Amino acid sequence: MFSIADETLFQRLLSLERRRCERTEERFALLLIDLEDITSSTSDLETIGRAIGNAMRDTDFTGWYQHPAVLGVILTTLNGSGRETIEPIMLERIRAAMAPHVESDQIQRVRISCHIFPEDGIPNRIFYSDHDKKQNGNPAVLKRAMDLAGSVAALLILSPLFAVIAVLVKLTSPGPVFFRQKRIGQFGGEFTFLKFRSMYVNSDPSIHKEFIRDLIAKKVEPGRTYKITNDPRITSIGRILRKSSLDELPQFINVLKGDMSLVGPRPPIPYEFEHYSLWHRRRIVEAKPGITGDWQVHGRSRTTFDEMVRMDLRYIRNQSLWLDLKLLMKTPFVMISGDGAY
């Protein structure tokens, strides 16, 4: 189910988008939807907010500008449109989203304003609130239960394979069995990400940093997401592990610890995250990162970076236990085929 960013997070991302605008001179718009005159409970306002968020584009970001009175929507891609074009379209879309939840006379009292940055600047906020960022509700509890059961079962069943891979890694190159790397988790927190080591020890990361920067900037040929073709840093056994995705198996430990989920977006590296636009950041705001997901099953290295992000956002918007189970059942076949992997 689509989630609305809390006030603290929304203001933080708004500040990041403002700095990006100042750096790149690419304009963005901020919609403010004043719900103060709607006579509904806080839970009803949350429902209305989710309905509005669902009506926005994948590249937009919805959250509480001032909870629970003012909802904000950041429009990151304007495609040259000005206020005179944006306002009537957004007004119609927002009212249509609210219609199933709000009486028509109340909808007419909702005030909507559009602020274009840098021309208008950002309106001053009135107060700060500190909402808990953790997911609540039965779906999140059931998803965590599935993560625990799945990771424990996988670690037990695959323990002989773990041992074989560990021996092969040690025999083919000096260094540790596991590769440890800082990754960005949900809400921007860092955690230690585990993989079977597929590279030589002390490999220079600059080649990957440059590749990621060019990938996000669309300077890399289509169909090469994250993995560098013929990477000289990869060991002989590492190429097999990466092609089959067996190097990813230690991430079941991350799932068991609660840093990751079985299904979710791929967790970014900090130097990758630095190049994200605001709408890219929604991947790590709205869902816990996962071992597999929509991109890993249906896209992998065949897609562009923006296409991958859109697949993650589509998963986040439609996520359910049934969708997670379908993606988990498809993952082994993708691993065996090696389609789209490097």
Shape: globular
Q: How many DSSP helices?
A: 14
Count of extended strands: 8
The Rg value, from CA coordinates, equals 22 Å
- Strands in their spatial order, largest beta sheet: 2-3-1-4
Q: What portion of residues belong to β-strands?
A: 5-15%
Largest sheet: 4 strands, antiparallel
- Unreliable residue stretches: 124-137
Number of discrete domains: 2
Q: What is the terminal separation in angstroms?
A: 33 Å
* Average pLDDT over all residues: 84
What structural class results from the helix and strand content?
A: alpha+beta
Order of helices and strands: HEHEEHHEHHEEHHHEHHEHHH
User: Which bin fits the share of residues in helices?
Assistant: 40-55%
List keywords for this structure.
Alpha-Beta Plaits; two-stranded antiparallel sheet; alpha+beta; 342 residues; four-stranded antiparallel beta sheet; 14% strand
Structure description:
By secondary structure, the protein is an alpha+beta fold. The chain folds into 2 domains: 7-117, Alpha-Beta Plaits; 138-337, no CATH class. It has helices at residues 7-24, 42-55, 83-98, 104-107, 138-157, 159-172, 206-216, 236-244, 251-257, 270-273, 278-285, 294-298, 305-318, 321-337, and strands at 28-34, 60-66, 70-75, 111-117, 178-184, 190-196, 261-263, 290-292. Helix 2 crosses helix 3 (83-98) and helix 5 (138-157) packs across helix 9. The two termini are 33 Å apart. The relative contact order is 0.12. Residues 124-137 have low confidence and may be disordered.
State the gist of this model.
This protein is α+β, with helices and mostly antiparallel strands and 342 residues long. It has helices at residues 7-24, 42-55, 83-98, 104-107, 138-157, 159-172, 206-216, 236-244, 251-257, 270-273, 278-285, 294-298, 305-318, 321-337, and strands spanning 28-34, 60-66, 70-75, 111-117, 178-184, 190-196, 261-263, 290-292.
